[in-house]
Design a protein that fits this description.
By secondary structure, the protein is α/β, with parallel strands linked by helices. It is built from 28 helices and 28 strands. The structure holds ligand C2E and calcium ion (2 copies). The site of one calcium ion has 5 residues, from β25.
Length: 755
Amino acid sequence: MKFFIRLLALCLFSSGYLPSLVYAETIYPNTSTSEHKSTNAQKLSEILTPDEQAWLKNNPSIRVAVKSGWMPVEFKLESGEHRGVSIDYLSMLADLLQVSFVIVDYIDNIAPTDADIISGVSNRTLKNTKFNLLNMSFVDFPLAIYRNKYLDKQPKILALEDLSGARVAIYKSGYIGEKIHENHPDIKLVHVDIADEAFEKLEAGAVEAYIGSEIVVDYHIVFNRLNFAQKAGLTPFTSSVSMAVRADRTLLASILEKSLLIVEPNNKKILEKWVIKDSRSNPFITAALVFVALILVLGLFRFYRLKQAIKKKDSESQQKIWYQANFDFLTKLPNRHLLHNRLEEALIKADASKLLVGLLYIDLDNFKSVNDQSGHNVGDKLLIEAAQRISLCVNPSDTTARIGGDEFMVVMEELKDFRSLEEACQKILIELEKPFLIDANVFYISSSIGVTVYPEDSNNTKELLVYADQAMYEAKKLGRNRYQFFTQSMQTLSSYKLSIAQDLRAAINTDQFIMHYQPILNFNDSSITKAEALIRWNHPKKGIINPADFIPIAEECGLIDVLGQWAFNQALKDLLIIRQRLGADFQLSINVSPYQFHYPERLLNWIQDINSLGVPGSCICIEITEGLLLDASNIVLNTLSALQNVGIELSIDDFGTGYSALAYLKKFDVNYVKIDKSFIQNLAPQNYDAVLCEAIIQMAQKLGIKIIAEGIETDVQNSLLNQFKCDYGQGFLFAKPTTLDLLLELLDEPKKLFV
Ligand code: C2E
Ligand code: CA
Ligand code: CA
């Protein structure tokens, strides 16, 4: 079994899978400031160079590889938490540098892509050339001499000089052995692999003494209840523990060296906590200490006692944990975490080979409706099949990962040019467009792919991941079932969006919105009994911003429901004023975004708001787009019908730009269809748009749906629409959207509309 696991580990390792990357714990900086801390921060800012300070700002999270069984330097409790001297140092450093340390489990030959730092390295044992040992250690343990007190009943204080001619056990690798040999060539050194072996020899009388790191060996004695072992003295030598830093992170290395100066090596506060007090001469204290220590670290003790028995199981479960941390359980593809690692590795390799790396972000179109309509079981099967199809479109050495829901990413390596990337995208589009046969049913989906390229677009993994996402989003916007390469303008646009999104949040709280109303003319009698509510944003710096520039952003960042609620409240308030002034019924149309149906409770509350003001429901019309009805879930349908039940009317906005099926719309009891302004603007006698408009009007009337033409700007358009017997018209020809006051004036004197 052991052999098998080793073999597996070897295969995983050589195929690029890096084992044992389990994110167990993060050490966060403490943000509260004490006087002591702020003087340290002050000292630090004086000794760090601007480059080092900038590095820290850009790297707020640093990965540290920590060993799990080296008590009390660093070890892992059964609960998975890490403890020990180096953990205490890390948490002091986290406070000082205001960074977080993400702990990863240490493995031999750990790769630089897995960790930035190895936290506990005893001097001269570092064999991994990709990491450099710091020049400074954080703790120096004296080397102590241990003997078997039962073999020589006279307690003795021993020094190295007393061991002349004696057999002494010592850890086989490490420079201490060499030092002792140089200075005391008459000591017979017996090399051992681990402390257990040394104590076996000591117990059996095969050696007279054992020399090891004081604190570490003291722990070993306490936890293994080695009653025969006794610390007999100290040597002049110490063994130092330091950190090793990724060879290419030179700034980090110098930051750590400077910070260790501030938090001080061999920090008393830390060591006091971990050192087991000398109790050689007092068996009572030893017993008490053992007892307390055992109680304190009970879990750990159990762990040690069962160590042998669970060793095998442990490595199996380590493998399992590692698998779970790196792979998606459904599709068995690498997950987001492993993808990030692979991407980082790919960039390092690409630097050496001077080839390109492509990153694909694939999002399935329409997956949600398959999942909603046919259930998760079918959805899961479709995802598994999609995962296989995608993997087959790229080289086996490329990484295909599932990063969540219906989203996949591919890292394509060793590319000479963009052609192979484009070919892969095309293949993926074609493969995913093919029907999916699941449980004897056929399903159709498609996909949208965003592509970014290293080093063309960026040389930073984080940015590449964001760019691929932005490019994918663009592919969706351009109509789905396509791929799109990242361009710098997407990034500019997205930072613009980000700043608008931030301002939007503030605007909602500080009343920066205004509602305008655009009258809707009844062609039959030229009366005005309707208007459309159109929101405007009075930005303190940018002036008036049109809704087309901020509604989509509000939709994206989840602010639309609050904004939509504001629009409804304002319109309802103004409706009361209009009704009072006219003494007659008047209808306001309110635009409702499909995203607002994600919060149906808010929309359903409108019913109460209307009722409590005593306004008939028919005074409100909501304008939605066809798309909402096309993929309508039960939530959408139920919400709409609840609103319709209290008399609220329904209008389909921008008709003609989408699916455009009138008969289908009738099913939803639609009252109005607004022909999109793009058709109206092209109207000329007998042209295609004129024929289309006339046909729509005639058909709608047969179905009992009224037509509103929007965007009427010219007399020609107006007279053609009258000729076609259109019901209502809206446009700059009659009136632009205006404030409530101006609307009221217009309603008092409708003739003003036509001047
Ligand atoms: P929409 O619902 O299609 O609104 C009609 C748009 O056409 C308005 O643009 C209006 O000012 C403009 N318009 C009216 N007559 C003419 C004309 O003769 N010629 C031309 N070229 N344009 C005309 P606006 O106010 O910029 O609104 C843009 C879009 O923003 C609206 O399109 C609507 O989708 C959205 N919107 C506006 N207010 C709200 C709101 O409160 N909530 C939501 N969810 N969306 C809103
Ligand atoms: Ca509208
Ligand atoms: Ca419209």
